[in-house]
TrEMBL record:
Keywords: ATP-binding, Kinase, Membrane, Nucleotide-binding, Phosphoprotein, Transferase, Transmembrane, Transmembrane helix, Two-component regulatory system. One of its GO terms (molecular function) is ATP binding. It catalyses: ATP + protein L-histidine = ADP + protein N-phospho-L-histidine. It is a multi-pass membrane protein. It comes from Chryseobacterium kimseyorum. The chain crosses the membrane at residues 7-30. Residues 227-312 form the PAS domain. It is found in: Membrane. This is histidine kinase. Residues 361-575 form the Histidine kinase domain. The keyword Ligase does not apply. PANTHER family: SENSOR HISTIDINE KINASE GLRK (PTHR42878:SF7), TWO-COMPONENT HISTIDINE KINASE (PTHR42878). Its EC number is 2.7.13.3.
Length: 575
């Protein structure tokens, strides 16, 4: 039933009951009034007339108006006949009174009349008694009926009072609770109102809404799960090993490649603390070095990890990524874990090795013919073989310069292949410094002469020997001097200085050339780097090879320079 109908029915019933009670009360009061009025009109008046007639009768012989009074009351009584027998009694009085009219002093007649009047009075008194009984019964009936009706009304009103408010309040309470549940994302919540009241319709709409929300949330969850599966498959099928850990270093996921190279099973990884896994696995221990000691990360340069996988040498590049997310409604990012990636660079490494071997073979094969060209050119210059005209002389000089350049390049490439394959063999022994410096100057003299550059050298008296590989150190010094010549203006000067500082021998080569911009000072020692705009020929390898040669001998190399003023290259080795 609709709430409106229910309210209407409840209030209407109460209204009807009020009317019923009022009508019943009114009707009974009317009945009682009628009963008492009957007594008053029908009997009380008769008694009054009878009394008056009795009084008049007493004075009828003395007072002339008593006769009239009697007649008047008798007339009134004749018109007020209400009880059975009253008519006869009144008629008796009338006939006896007419007899008395003839003789007013007839005492016998008077007493007969008195008797008649008494009988009339008796008749009416009896009627009063009966009517009073009727009125009593009416009052008792009224009390009974009104009590029953009142009790009934009370019961109905009480039932309405108990049921009607809860009929409205209960569904509202249940609905409020369900709305709270939906707000807490509990989309399985449903309301169960029965009937076809407005609440029933509300419940139906609410349940449809909850069902749709549930469907939506489940489809969203399904989407997220599918997305997660996709990413997991992607990570699993990567050729790079991937390990994910949370902020407490507990392993969240690990892909197949990581399992393959570590030789561990998934159960031995996932859900465990990575440092606990590292205890029994050398590779994992190596991987998490930087995570355990963050200082290491800053110090060490990324190095290649050589790992044997399925009997084959594989090279991996390690990378550790921090995962920081910006939580909704917050300003700062929060650290939620790390991903350790081992990028498989074996194919690149193989290509690099092939390139190194190729470079090594080619430069080695080139060296012998170039050397014989150099010898041939030197022979051509010799007067004993024959005189050359000016043009031929110029050509020979050009060939000589090109040959030198080719020899320099092949030398650098050979050194580079040695460094890359790790087969640099150092022959460290006490080496004579003056001999080394002099031979370097001699080797570069013709290039210096071409630009009218003079080379000066100063070797401190207390310095004669250096504990170094003579060949490699000569090569480094020669490379620095040749750079100094190439990057200097004509008619300038180069100073070579060798001095002892504590237990170190410090070589320095100062030129007055173009100088190097501050931003490039660090970079000149990296492979294949040439300052942008450099015109002179070169490969960008000389200084990087020099650095590696010096560092392999436990020494240090550095540069100071001012643009336009010149540069000074230093390297120091053990005395
Ligand atoms: P390159 O074969 O190009 O000389 P290097 O490794 O010897 O290779 O030198 C790297 C770069 O450093 C050069 O290309 C040049 O730009 C710069 N450089 C080296 N020495 C000097 C110097 N004495 N004065 C100015 N620039 C220099």
């Amino acid at each position: 039933m609709k709430i409106k109908t229910k309210l209407n029915a409840g209030v209407g019933l109460l209204f009807f009951m009020i009317i019923l009670l009022s009508v019943l009360g009114g009707w009974f009061i009317y009945q009682l009034k009628k009963d008492t009025q009957n007594i008053l009109v029908a009997n009380y008046n008769t008694l009054q007339y009878s009394r008056n007639m009795l009084l008049s009768l007493e004075e009828i012989d003395r007072q002339p108006f008593a006769m009239k009074e009697f007649q008047k009351n008798l007339n009134l009584q004749s018109q007020n006949i209400t009880e059975s027998g009253e008519k006869e009694a009144t008629r008796n009085i009338i006939s006896h009174f007419s007899d008395l009219n003839k003789d007013r002093n007839d005492e016998n007649l008077k007493s007969v009349i008195r008797k008649d009047i008494t009988e009339l009075m008796q008749l009416n008194m009896n009627a009063i008694q009966i009517k009073s009984g009727i009125a009593n019964t009416t009052a008792e009936n009224a009390i009974a009926v009104i009590s029953i009706a009142g009790t009934l009304c009370f019961l109905i009103a009480f039932t309405l009072m108990v049921n009607l408010p809860s009929n409205i309040a209960n569904p509202i309470r249940e609905l409020t609770f369900s709305i709270h549940q939906i707000a807490k994302q509990n989309y399985r919540e449903r309301v169960r109102f029965e009937g076809n009241s407005e609440f029933g319709e509300l419940a139906k709409s609410f349940n449809t809404m909850a069902e749709k929300l549930q469907e939506y949330s489940e489809s969203r969850l399904d989407k997220i799960l599918k997305g997660k599966k996709r990413i997991e498959t992607l990570i699993d099928n990567m050729h790079d090993a991937v390990i994910g850990i949370d902020e407490d270093r507990k392993v969240l996921f690990v892909n197949d490649e990581a399992l393959k190279i570590s030789g561990l099973k998934k159960e031995q990884f996932v859900g465990k603390l990575i440092q606990d896994v590292a205890v029994g696995n050398d590779l994992v221990r190596d991987l998490i070095r930087e995570i355990i000691d963050p200082q290491l990360q800053k110090k060490t340069e990324p190095e290649l990890l050589k790992i044997f996988v399925e009997g084959k040498e594989n090279y991996f590049e390690k990378e550790i990524l921090d995962i920081n997310v910006l939580p909704t409604g917050e300003d700062s990012k929060r650290f939620i874990g790390q991903v350790i990636m081992l990028r498989n660079v074996t194919p690149f490494k193989e290509l690099d090795l092939a390139k190194t071997h190729f470079m090594g073979t080619v430069s080695h094969e080139f060296k012998t013919p170039i050397s014989s060209i150099q010898m041939g050119v030197q022979l051509l210059e010799n007067d004993r073989i024959g005189n050359l005209n000016d043009e031929q002389q110029k050509l020979v000089v050009g060939i000589k310069e090109d040959t030198l350049r080719l020899l320099k390049i092949t030398g650098e490439l050979l050194n580079l292949t040695q460094l890359e394959t790790g087969v640099v063999q150092l022959n460290i022994r006490p080496s004579e410094i003056s001999k080394m410096v002099e031979s370097v100057i001699a080797a570069n003299q013709s290039a210096a002469d071409n630009k009218q550059i003079s080379i000066k050298f100063k070797i401190n008296k207390n310095v004669d020997l250096v504990n170094a590989d003579y060949e490699k150190t000569s090569w480094v010094l020669s490379n620095i001097v040749s750079n100094a010549i190439r990057y200097s203006y004509e008619n300038s000067m180069i100073e070579i200085n060798v001095e002892k500082k504590e237990d170190q021998i410090k070589f320095s080569v100062k030129d007055h050339g173009y100088g190097i911009e501050e931003q490039y000072l660090d970079k000149v020692f990296t492979r294949y780097f040439r300052i942008p705009g450099t015109k002179a020929d070169g490969t960008g390898l000389g200084l990087s090879i020099s650095k590696e040669f010096i560092e392999a001998q436990g020494g240090e190399i550095s540069v100071q320079s001012e643009i336009g003023e010149g540069s000074t290259f230093y390297f120091s080795l053990k005395a």
